[in-house]
Amino acid sequence: MKVMLVLPPSRFATKEILGITSPPLGLAYLASSLENEGYKVKIIDAPTLNWKMDDVQLEIENFKPQLVGITSTTPTIYDAYEVAEITKKIDPEITVVIGGPHVSFASFTTLDECSSIDIVFYLRPKFIWQQIRRKDFFLFKESL
Ligand code: B12
To answer: Higher model confidence: residue 51 or residue 108?
Structure first.
């Protein structure tokens, strides 16, 4: 199964004023855990690559993941929603999951605000990944 993990393109102060980006550690942890299980994983760090939404769209079209995972903070949440929407436009069968600090406290709001998101992760993502891999979670998604 192919998984794409995305730090969305976004404007944020630490990059624009201080010129700082740094690796999305949360996505890196998830990727290493999935790769250990044999999944093919690609991380898109859009701010560091200076990628726009069109670039992300192209990469999803080329890589053809079955699952797209997006990370989010409060100031970047609408960019995360856009990545989710683009993904579903490319292929509604791709499962879209979101995690990160914002959705950890605004889980239900996130699902209400963005219909393109299938699953919100909060609190113990590693544990929930394990559940998903065992198909204990969201059983209606046959492709998982
Ligand atoms: C290092 C850091 C940065 C770095 C690197 C950010 C990055 N690329 O990851 C820099 C300096 C660039 C940065 C920038 C910003 N940051 Co910052 N940052 C941090 C810091 C100190 C650590 C983040 C980290 O690496 N944590 C460790 C990893 C392992 O945890 P994690 O990212 O939360 O991921 C775990 C879970 O959340 C979850 N998860 C995360 N994403 C996903 C996705 C999926 C699909 C799944 C399943 C699970 C999952 O699984 C991970 C493993 O357990 C945190 C504070 C903190 N102590 O967490 C603030 C923090 C995340 N930053 C914050 C903010 C606001 C920002 C900026 C918006 C600041 C600004 N105005 O410019 C920007 C946004 C950057 C961006 N586009 O994401 C806030 C977010 C608050 C919020 N309400 O959302 C925090 C919490 C600080 C705070 N207390 O205010 N940041």
So the answer is: 51
